[in-house]
């Protein structure tokens, strides 16, 4: 998981270009492995009727459990192995097709959750009651238990 953190930071910068990633460590807190991020506003951003100007003194942080992104790949791998197959080659083909998708999921999950958390924090402080696409994705993932 530690090897994926730099890629996750790049994905977060791509997903949420309004934020500049200050640092994104993988840390152990209270017995849990967490991916944390601290960001600054990178661009002038308009939320509702307010324009937010970047200020290096202001920052926001969020975290998600590192193992959170491993749940879906684990269930998918168990499904591939547990689903009936005719020949062993079919199982290998399924695994070969699944591996890149699972790697993408692991690298995308944490940045999406972190970006959604930071956006929701920004919206709650500046324009309460406003929602965003990332916030809706986060809420649906939490409701599904993913």
Q: What would the keywords be for this entry?
A:
alpha+beta; 146 residues; 4 helices; 21% strand
Briefly summarize what is shown.
The protein is α+β, with helices and mostly antiparallel strands and 146 residues long.
Characterise this structure:
- The radius of gyration is 18 Å and the shape is elongated.
- It is about 55% helix and about 20% strand.
- Strands 1, 2, 3 and 6 form a 4-stranded antiparallel β-sheet that branches. Strands 4-5 form a two-stranded antiparallel sheet.
- The chain has one domain.
- With about 150 residues, it is α+β, with helices and mostly antiparallel strands.
- A hairpin with a 2-residue loop joins strand 4 and strand 5.
- Helix 3 crosses helix 4.
Question: What is the alpha-carbon Rg in Å?
Answer: 18 Å
Topology pattern, helix = H, strand = E: HEEEEEEHHH
Whole-number mean pLDDT? 84
Helix-strand category: alpha+beta
Number of strands: 6
How would you summarize the topology of this molecule?
Blueprint: H1 5-15, E1 19-23, E2 26-29, E3 32-41, E4 45-47, E5 50-52, E6 60-65, H2 68-82, H3 88-126, H4 133-144
Antiparallel strand pairs: 1-3, 2-3, 3-6, 4-5
